[in-house]
Design a protein that fits this description.
By secondary structure, this protein is an alpha/beta fold. A seven-stranded parallel sheet has the order 8-7-6-9-10-11-12, sandwiched between helices. The protein contains 13 helices and twelve strands.
Amino acid sequence: MPDKVLIYSRLPKSMTQRFADRFDLLDSGGRPAHEVFPAEEIAQIRALITAGGTPLGAADMDRLPSLGAIICYGTGYDGVDLKAAAARNIAVGHSPGANAAAVADVAVMLMLATTRRLVVADRYVRDGSWAEAKPSPLMQPPPSLGGCKVGVYGMGAIGRKIAARVAAFETDIGYFSRTRYDDLPYRYFQSLDALAEWCTVLMIAVRAGAETTHAVNADLLKKLGPDGHVVNISRGSVIDQAALLSALKDGSIAGAGLDVFETEPHVPDELTAQPNLVVTPHIGGNTREAHVAMQACVIANLAAFFAGEKLPYRVKS
């Protein structure tokens, strides 16, 4: 019999079909498993697949008495209580780097859209303002990207790909990360504050966690300055969203590009109403190639677990 695997988060069927070909899937549709399946079936579940940002704590694990593996679909695993998993001898796996190229592409897209005011320019044409030669403060010439200082917060797989891409725009690149990498040609900063004071565009590519929650706050945004832009493709928790709204409204920064938000999919109307903000619905890793790569990591992790082997893509806590 195929091994039973719980689909813990709400995932589209198109994303789980490859798993169904290998395993016996129990899809709870995002609801708690104990509300959907009988106790005897829950007792047989040894592994589950979850979106990394979905909360999965000690109490949730205890409802699955045979659980031995939590496999995150994607790179992130911030929703999983790693200490609780370790205490219960539950292995946690993810898909490191599988969607890095796709996410980096969206980061650059958002950088260009916010610095060159794509949404404002698009609307200026569509509503007839260009044809009528209407004056618009947001259509004033912005600074050029050539020679622009781009700061990358978090130099993991995604951060590295972002840096490689923005280098093509003849920008100066600096970064702040937990680790200083000798193999990188970019300037390293000892703190996020120092990076923000130096750069014009701050690209957030850091992993979410307690230490990065609201790391980008009101004080940091002020350090970016009135010509500064912030782009976030990591997790919404990294930015203090209320502080960002204030900075966008009072001109403390020039603009922002967001693919992630504090409470998804609900984004405050006041935030989305800001003309100097560009938003996308958490689509960073949403390419066909990225999904194929992430699914391959999930399958490899599950296959290894059920074979009694170590997960090839285990989270290093």
